[in-house]
Amino acid sequence: MNNTMGQSIIINKPFGDATTGKLGMWLFIIMDGITFATILLGGIYLRIRSNLWPPAGEILNIPLTSFNTFLLILTSFTMAMALNAIKKNNTKNLNLFLSLTVFGGIIFLTIQVYEYSHFIQGNDNLSLSLAKAGFLGESSFLWSTGVYGATFYATTLFHGLHVFSGVIYLSIILYQTNRGVYSSKNYDRIEIAGLFWHFIDLVWILVFTIVYLI
Amino acid sequence: MKKSHKSLYITTTIFLAIITIIEIRISHWYITKFYQIGLLVSLAILKMASVAYVFMHLYFEKKLLRKILFVPIPLLIYFLLGLVHEAKFEWMIQ
């Protein structure tokens, strides 16, 4: 590039073509990632110190949560395809893939609410599992069910709130898509929203492993 | 026209699904807790790296951004080692 004096100027772009918004989202992801890491590490510490920690699958429903994991992986794929579509100026596919992503997020939340309601309402099978795990006399699995219950709800609820905000965020993007805001030359906001959604998937991978499988 | 990564996304999605199935299988294996945790955490890190590199396009970003993103990781590992040291590995060898 030349300046007004005709001298050549070398523009230093340390982050390449990444926009300010995108860098801002990356910064947010770093900070949010540290928050998640603190919650997970706090949970690990409490687990180390606790005498009462049921083995994987004793209380928590692994098949149901595994389905949720596959679902979140699929929504990451549909989100990536939505960005792919707008890069080709294909707003029809953008609309389709964004809708699928939002729908996947809603199903994820519905399953999580179902899981919570099953734990809160309680039943004979759950009482039996709780007794087997050492929580004698408990009929429902609540946040007050020992350190285990507190850790489980704190971690999964914090993640669930992220999914909820992600669904709202993507719904707004979907609304703007329907109003013709985005094109192959203007899709930065979709990419930024996608980063947030993929981050939710990324964190769930760790939450699923630490809370449900280990 | 911008480059499409459709086949890469499909491959990554299938890869993530397969690794998830392997993880679920490992959680049912009767092996020492230490090895089970090691395997599960390694696979989770592999999955997270795949999501970050492919879906979040970290692979296509400038090196400086990648370096900045990896700064907190050594600090977290240091903290985790501290926790494990405090527990003296007792819970892992049950």
Textual characterization of the structure:
The complex is a heterodimer of chains A (214) and B (94). Chain A is elongated. In chain A, α1 runs parallel beside α6, α3 runs antiparallel to α5 and α5 packs antiparallel against α6. Chain A has one domain: Up-down Bundle (Four Helix Bundle (Hemerythrin (Met), subunit A)). Chain A has six helices and no strands. With 214 residues, chain A is an all-alpha fold. In chain A, 73% of the residues lie in helices and 0% in strands. Chain B is mainly α and 94 residues long. Chain B has one domain. In chain B, α1 packs antiparallel against α2. The longest helix of chain B has 23 residues. Chain B is flat and about 50 Å long. Chains A and B meet through α1, α2 and α6 of A and α1, α2, α3 and α4 of B.
Features:
heterodimer, A: mainly alpha, Four Helix Bundle (Hemerythrin (Met), subunit A), 73% helix, B: 94 residues, mainly alpha, 4 helices, 0% strand
Q: How is this fold's topology laid out?
A:
The complex is a heterodimer of chains A (214) and B (94).
Chain A: H1 20-49, H2 62-87, H3 91-121, H4 124-133, H5 146-178, H6 188-213
Chain B: H1 6-27, H2 33-55, H3 63-70, H4 72-87
Helix pairs in contact in B: 1-2
| CATH level-four homologous superfamily name of chain A | Cytochrome c oxidase, subunit III, four-helix bundle
Per CATH, the architecture of chain A is: Up-down Bundle
Mind describing the biggest β-sheet of chain B?
Answer: none
Arithmetic mean of pLDDT of chain B: 83
User: What structural class results from the helix and strand content of chain B?
Assistant: mainly alpha
Strand percentage of chain A:
under 5%
> Could you give a short account of the major beta sheet of chain A?
none
The gross shape of chain A turns out to be elongated
Rounded to the nearest angstrom, the distance between the terminal CA atoms of chain A is: 56 Å
In short:
Chain A is mainly alpha-helical and 214 residues long. Chain A contains 6 helices and no strands.
